[in-house]
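Quick bug: Endonuclease domain-containing protein output formatted oddly.
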Amino acid sequence: MTKPESSTLTKAKSLRTHQTEAEARLWYHLRAHRFMGLKFKRQKPVGRYIVDFICWERRLIVELDGGQHAGQSSYDRQRDAWLRSQGYTVLRFWNHEVMQEMEAVLERMRCVIESSSQGEKGRITPGGTGYQASPLPLAGEG
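Here's what came back:
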């Protein structure tokens, strides 16, 4: 892994300091090995991107999307494709899902972690609200 640029590290630190309410609520459940005994970090550089939450051990990235993401779906798809090409599983949740359905968000994460530990490869597929991981390939893949 290449060393992130100074500006990327500065931006990541700023994002940690100025987190959204949804990020703060999810972080409460992920920090200090509270979720499945796994170590998560927040706002970490991966390549040229900064990811919201990452568990290096399970190569899992969790992204939270607010209203600003509605207009950048093409960028998010490109970004997710690059992260997947690096061996990460990417889960996306809308902020309102975290705020209103925390147990469902955590359950979805648990299911993906358990399936990946059994050898299944999580892939991004559009589903309902936001993107969900799935062991099935996208059309045109695989």
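Actually, after a second look the formatting is fine. Residues 121-142 have pLDDT under 50 and may be disordered. Closing.
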